[in-house]
Design goal:
single chain; alpha+beta; Alpha-Beta Plaits; Calcium-transporting ATPase, cytoplasmic transduction domain A; 22 helices; 26 strands; elongated
Length: 711
């Protein structure tokens, strides 16, 4: 199964995008397809040995539905700036062509209205104007009818305007096409501006890298051509193009595009420099550790750009609605044209046909089909600006149904920076000896507690002294040091090995040590609560989250102490990784029907729980492949308060999307009734179509502004 992405340059019709998705989905080789109107991308998964044939089939479908679309394979779009330039040129050509048509056709239309012409010549002027302005619409409608694709906006506009000519309403027939074209131009500009605004939020893709050559100088190259181990120079004001380690130089880096952090980060020899950071003042020499395809900036761009392939239920509902809505209004218009003249005394066919034509013009569903995906895509873009990566609009919408938030403790609510705060050896053993035994016992562990013990020991380890190392999951380690059996772990390990020990209660994590079945003492290791953790819990409660739970592998008294400080509702302690999944399932069984549970973890150790939760949210995912893979939402910083921000953005997105649905349906519904009873004319009909679409698009753009939200 292969996943591919195609760029659809010139895709300007959201309704057409939905048709492409439906028709491509019927291809036998395609198992999944999503056409994202906002980012002009088609994502599909296919099980086929001949991709070229499949590409041709897909391109044929796309061009049949929208002939002006240029299909490109994203894998071959190496230059970001070139891609932008080509897309801009293509859009500019289409815009200039439409403006020329509008100008020439409009002048001829004005001449027909103002000059004293014979009826035949006047009709000729109106027809020429109509062909210039609306010929493209009529041509597309005819082509679609021949392909069996009857019910679309081209068909609606063609029937309405041709019908106006047939009943002698020449000026209105041309005027509808003129205003439709004006509306389409404004609509395209609004959509284009929205797309640019969303792209600007994530404008972190580097255009070049300064590669250090063998001679010691540098030359500008494409980031894709730089290999792991190469060195690059990053000057002040430039974007860091690839992930690496600083080998020379000191500087401050603007990380806001990736993390939303306002404070610059200090970079110096030995520190990690991630692609997407902007170097502020010093010159840096960086040794590349990841190629461009696996760099942080590439992963983030891929995640954001393809997020809309996972569509929200509201988007899917509107797409289905539009599919049945258009045929419905066509048959309703037919009924308006034919039934009243037969049943109402004195009614004329020309009168009711005109009303039916007005009804058709009003009915185009563009406002809904365009503004809703733009709203969700804008919400995803606005979230990314705040350092919150949402993998799909379905997850953004799901955040509105959250009832319970479940936190892992270490690295999520606490810093995960442990320190040895107390050392209590048994008589006959010194502090140094106890720490040495614990350090050798934890020599092979990468757990933060082990790191804190090794840091306290502060000496090199002679690993030849270590034999028979055995890790006991959830308990600790057994190891032979200088041929003595040493146990280092929690009280469960002491109980399992039947060691008589001193039970310690209080704060911190207690690590017990035994040598040759005799208790040797204990060390206390404490974690630190993150600065904004308490505020994050308060904010979540203020947003109406019903239950906040913390899961930890620590002792009960340690977990409860942290829980009290944070103000969480429930604490479950002494949990093994498998226990966390079971506990989440228990909480899931108790939730209200239709509500969601978020699990927030570090994205590496908590992958099973992240996968099991309704919404998995990884903290501190910056540069972590595991976090980005495991979670549905990635918080780029270590700030728990960003969870509340994500909920606020989701609620604002939903509010604006629902506003557009209510506004579009309300205005169209009103004008459909007015058109049917003869109050609304073609002029009002044009407003009800393109005017409503424009207002809805402009409203959708508001979702990208997240500056007013407080974390």
């Amino acid at each position: 199964m292969e996943k591919k992405v195609l760029k659809l340059e010139g895709l300007g019709c959201a309704n057409c995008a939905a048709k492409m998705e439906t028709k491509i989905g019927t291809l036998q080789e395609v198992s999944f397809v999503s056409v994202d109107f906002a980012s002009q991308r088609l994502t599909f998964e296919a099980d086929t040995g001949n991709l070229n044939e499949l590409y041709q089939s897909i391109e044929k479908i796309i061009v049949e539905i929208e002939p002006q679309v240029i299909v490109k394979d994203e894998e071959y779009q190496h230059s970001a700036s070139a891609e932008k330039d080509q897309s801009h040129d293509h859009g500019s050509r289409l815009f200039k062509r439409d403006v020329a048509r509008l100008s020439v056709g409009g002048l001829i239309f004005l001449a027909a209205l103002t000059l004293s012409l014979s009826p035949t010549l006047e009709l000729a002027f109106f027809l020429v104007s109509y062909v210039i302005v609306g010929g493209g619409v009529v041509k597309r409608a005819v082509k679609n009818i021949l392909r069996g694709q009857i019910f679309d906006e081209n068909f609606l506009m063609t029937v309405a305007t041709v019908g106006a000519f047939l009943i002698g309403e020449y000026p209105e027939g041309v005027a509808v096409m003129l205003f439709y074209l004006v509306g389409e131009l404004f609509q395209d500009q609004a959509v284009g501006k929205s797309r640019k605004s969303i792209s600007a939020l994530m404008d972190i893709r580097p255009d070049y890298a300064n590669l250090v050559t063998e001679k010691g100088d540098s030359r500008r190259v494409s980031p894709e051509s730089v290999n792991i181990g190469d060195r690059i120079v990053v000057k002040p004001g430039e974007k860091i193009p690839l992930d690496g380690i600083v080998r020379d130089g000191y500087s401050l880096a603007d990380t806001s595009a990736l993390t939303g952090e306002s404070m610059p980060r200090e970079l110096g020899p030995g520190t990690d420099a991630l692609s997407g950071f902007i170097n502020q003042n010093g010159v840096l020499v960086i040794e590349v550790t990841k190629d461009f395809g696996h760099s942080t900036v590439s992963k983030i761009l891929e995640l954001v750009q393809h997020a809309s392939s996972r569509k929200a239920p509201t988007e899917k509902l509107i797409t289905k609605f539009a599919r049945y809505y258009t045929p419905g209004v066509v048959f309703s218009a037919l009924a308006i044209a034919l039934i009243p003249p037969l049943l109402i005394q004195g009614a004329t066919f020309s009168q009711w046909v005109y009303r039916a034509l007005v009804f058709l013009v009003i009915s185009c569903p563009c406002a809904l089909v365009i503004s809703i995906p733009l709203g969700f895509f804008g919400g995803i873009g606005g979230a990314s600006r705040r350092g919150i990566l949402v993998k799909g609009s379905n997850y953004l919408e799901a955040l509105n149904q959250v009832e319970t938030v479940v936190f892992d403790k270490t690295g999520t609510l606490t810093k995960g920076i442990f320190q040895v705060t107390d050392i209590q050896p048994q008589p006959g053993i010194t502090n140094e000896q106890l720490v040495e035994l614990a350090a050798y016992g934890e020599a092979h562990s990468n757990h933060p507690i082990a790191d804190s013990i090794l840091k306290t020991y502060g000496k090199g380890l002679n690993r030849q002294r270590i034999t028979d190392y055995q890790e006991v999951a959830g308990h600790g380690v057994k190891v032979r040091i200088d041929d003595r059996l040493v146990l280092v772990g929690n009280k469960r390990l002491m109980d399992q090995e039947q060691i008589h020990y001193q039970v310690v209660t209080g704060l911190g994590t207690v690590v017990y040590v035994a040598v040759d079945s005799r208790y040797a003492g204990y060390l206390v290791i404490d974690d630190q609560i993150k600065e904004d953790a308490v505020q994050a819990i308060k904010k979540l409660k203020s947003l109406g989250i019903g239950k906040i739970v913390m899961l930890t592998g620590d002792l009960q008294q340690v977990g409860e102490s942290i829980g009290r400080q944070l103000g969480v509702d429930e604490v479950y302690s002494q949990l093994l990784p498998g226990d966390k999944v079971e506990k989440l399932e228990e909480l899931d069984a108790l939730k209200t029907k239709g509500k969601k549970i978020i699990f927030v973890g570090d994205g590496i150790n908590d992958a099973p729980v992240l996968a099991r939760a309704d919404i998995g949210m990884a903290m501190g995912g910056l540069g972590s492949d595991a976090a980005i893979e495991a979670a549905d939402i990635v918080i780029m910083t270590d700030e728990p308060s960003k969870i509340a921000t994500a909920l606020q953005i989701a609620r604002r997105t939903r509010r604006i999307v629902y506003q557009n649905i209510a506004f579009a349906m309300g205005v169209k519904g009103l004008f459909l009734v007015l058109g049917a009873i003869g109050v609304a004319s073609m002029w009002e009909a044009v407003f009800a179509d393109v005017g409503v679409a424009l207002i809805a698009i402009l409203n959708a753009m508001r979702v990208m502004n997240t500056d007013h939200l407080t974390s």
